[in-house]
Amino acid sequence: MSPRPAAFESRFLRACARRPVDVVPVWFMRQAGRYLPGYRALRTRHSILDIAKTPELACEATLEPIRKFPLDAAIIFADILLPLEAMGLRLRFNPAPTIDHPIRGPADIKRLAVRPDPESLSFVGDAIRLARRELDGKIPLIGFAGAPFTLASYMIEGGPSRDFLLTKALMREIPGSWDTLMDRIVRVTLSYLKMQAASGAQAIQIFDSWAGALSPEDYRASVLPATKRLFSGLKELGVPLIYFGSGASGFLEDFASAGAGVIGVDWRIDIGEAFRRLPGKAVQGNLDPALLLAPLPVLKKAALRILRQASSRRGFIFNLGHGILPQTPPDNVRALAEWVHRYGGRDSGAKG
Amino acid sequence: MSPRPAAFESRFLRACARRPVDVVPVWFMRQAGRYLPGYRALRTRHSILDIAKTPELACEATLEPIRKFPLDAAIIFADILLPLEAMGLRLRFNPAPTIDHPIRGPADIKRLAVRPDPESLSFVGDAIRLARRELDGKIPLIGFAGAPFTLASYMIEGGPSRDFLLTKALMREIPGSWDTLMDRIVRVTLSYLKMQAASGAQAIQIFDSWAGALSPEDYRASVLPATKRLFSGLKELGVPLIYFGSGASGFLEDFASAGAGVIGVDWRIDIGEAFRRLPGKAVQGNLDPALLLAPLPVLKKAALRILRQASSRRGFIFNLGHGILPQTPPDNVRALAEWVHRYGGRDSGAKG
Fold first, then answer.
1. Region A36-41: what's the mean pLDDT?
2. Angstrom distances, CA of residue B43 to CA of A134, B35, B59, B137, B336
3. Residue B333 is assigned to a structural domain of this protein
4. C-beta atoms of A247 and B247 within 8 A
5. Residue B234: which CATH number?
6. To the nearest whole angstrom, how far is the Cα of A4 from the nearest Cα of chain B?
7. Residues of B in Cβ contact (< 8 Å) with A254
8. Residues of chain A positioned with their CB less than 8 A from the CB of B212
9. What's the mean pLDDT in A292-303?
10. pLDDT confidence bin for B119, thresholds 50/70/90
11. What is the percent of chain B with per-residue pLDDT over 70, rounded to a whole number?
12. Using a CB-CB distance cutoff of 8 angstroms, which residues of chain B are in contact with residue A173?
């Protein structure tokens, strides 16, 4: 870990709280991932689940991007689907995530464990403790979980989906069972995230990657109530709460009403427009991940455009609009993080 | 064709022009498709391309939903990728569309034909003439084409894509060639659609199914200029112009500035909000196609919700937010079309 100025230490947490910062903080979703040589080497010997369940390996994956790039936050290496195992489902990666015997009706939902063995996810807590020790107070560590809708869709579809037909059918046609499912997910996720915070996670991000499959009305009627309960329960942890969604620009205000103080947006909306539609919120985003594959001048121009719109706003955290793509050149990640710091000062004007 | 009241004849065209209608008009994207038994029977004997290129078969596919359901518009059976053949690319369906030797650089773009043999797409004109004769002035017939961005993405990726990395790379890194490509697509599409209008198409819809892959800035800088030229060239045809996009709610105003009088929206935005953001435009949409698979009471409730928000608006055309899914029960399509007429009057109040 290279030495960093004192102000650097809490830049990310200050921005989450909409407090002034010296320069815009930056981290990247899936920054610990396949685009990194160290992680790829790890994956030749270990499966994703092995890495996630072995605290030393998860810690190593977490720290690789922090050692390499000037990032303002680390995020613990884990997978949003891990709590499904604690709920009694069987999870595999081949390489897309697959759930054996996905949930197809009320009986399946009733069988789900709601008070999982507290030990069943303790490896994530152990990884967080290890990573906090290594980070040594210099870079804050983010914990995370999947949002109720996104987790439910995996549990029902059995893997990634295009049309979410089974999920929507259960949601619309058996609303009582759907609510039970959402409630069980919320309870398990709350206990999981409390454990993460107790282990040292200094902020929590909730990933609602598939929210964009929904109409605003479906979101409000079938997803928002449970998601509100989740955020309401997380408030007592006293750490910043980030709610990321993809494809939710059509109902951003509803999405933001779930209760997080920081809203993560995808690249399908101007960041300035996101700030206008989200008064009182910190906003995280929103570069198209495909731009990290472009030549540096193209990447720089796009990054500066976002900084021009957002760097003078209270509570801006630079990120991508979705996770880093595996094809991303690591040098571009470094260059982008450096530009955010160089041009993301309140007075630098992002002129480039 | 069952007899229909006189007012029925031009309900769709009147709504496109934001003129008063007796009840809300309705048609469905991909209404001539795999959910219909007649079409499936046709497909056991003929490929998609065979049907599209044989005017009698294309006419038959076009008319099947009109014969079965009380729809207010027919849309000619064709595929948005047909003009790619006229431009010199080889197109196959197996079953996803595949383009042999997709475009990978400037040399490929230069090779594209810009003045295709006027005969090369004449089968679409023949199908339109046949369908108009069969429709006998009772139901208007929509012609269509793919939008420049959506067509370019197929030409470059060689088929459907998730991340559009090759398309975005060409667009951002070789902007001169990208503009040449867009220009060639616009020229071919203009001549193709002029032929459709001359053959009898009474409205034109442009499908920008992949617009949601773009950031607002990419859309404005690299896609909007060519799309504006397309709509500008289409104006002289004197028929209503519909521009449908999926995933464009984050930049709906930019999308609408391309020049169509009717904007088609997906289901990720409230239809009332779409009207508010699109002053002066007619709006088409926006039921989640997955709802057509739901039990009738669930489907009805969702349809009435849209009608409550939109049926008193000038220029509302009921449609889905994307194409009909193959798993859709035809009886649900009939029920939905009937409800739109029953509850879509200005005074019916969509009470159900």
1. 97
2. 62, 12, 14, 28, 26
3. no
4. yes
5. 3.20.20.210
6. 34
7. none
8. 247, 268
9. 98
10. confident
11. 95
12. 294-295, 298
B328: nearest CA partner in chain A:
A165
Strand B90-93 versus strand B97-100 pairing type: antiparallel
- Is B10 contained in some domain? no
How do residues A141-162 score in pLDDT, each as one tens digit? 999 999 999 999 999 999 999 9
Q: What is the nearest CA distance from B120 to chain A, expressed in angstroms?
A: 35
A43 is catalytic: yes
For residue A95, name the pLDDT band (cuts at 50, 70, 90).
confident
Q: What is the reported pTM? A: 0.95
- Which residues in A have their CB inside 8 Å of a CB on B? 163-165, 168-169, 172-173, 212, 214-218, 247-251, 266-270, 273, 288-291, 293-295, 298, 302, 305, 321, 325, 327
CA dist., res. A13 & res. A314, Å (int): 12
CA atoms within 13 A of residue B130's CA, in its CB half-sphere: 18
> Dmax over Cα atoms in chain A, in whole Å?
59
DSSP readout, A12-46? HHHHHTT---SB--B--TT-SSTTSHHHHHHHHHS
CB spacing of A217 vs B302 below 8 angstroms: yes
Q: Between chains, do A268 and B293 touch, taking CB under 8 Å as contact? A: no
Residue located via tokens 């995020």: A75
Number of domains present in the structure of chain B: 1
With CA atoms as reference, the chain B residue closest to A214 would be B268
Q: Tell me which residue in A168, A218, A268 faces B250 most closely, judged by beta carbons.
A: A268
Task: State the distance between the two ends of chain A, measured CA to CA, in whole angstroms.
Answer: 28
For chain A, the average pLDDT equals 94
Cβ of B270 and A217 within 8 Å?
yes
- Whether B304 is in a domain gets the answer no
What band does B276 get if pLDDT is binned at 50, 70 and 90? very high
Asked if residue B86 belongs to a domain, the reply is yes
Q: Is A67 a catalytic residue?
A: no
Task: Give ∠ CA A143-A144-A146 in degrees, rounded to 5.
Answer: 170
Of A153, A215, A249, A304, which to mutate for an interface test with B (greatest number of B Cβ within 10 Å)? Answer: A215
Q: Could you list the residue range(s) of the whole structural domain that residue B234 is in?
A: 73-264
> Do A216 and B269 make contact, defined as CB atoms within 8 angstroms?
yes
What is the maximum span of chain B, computed from C-alpha positions, in angstroms?
A: 59
Active site residues of B: 30, 34, 43, 79, 154
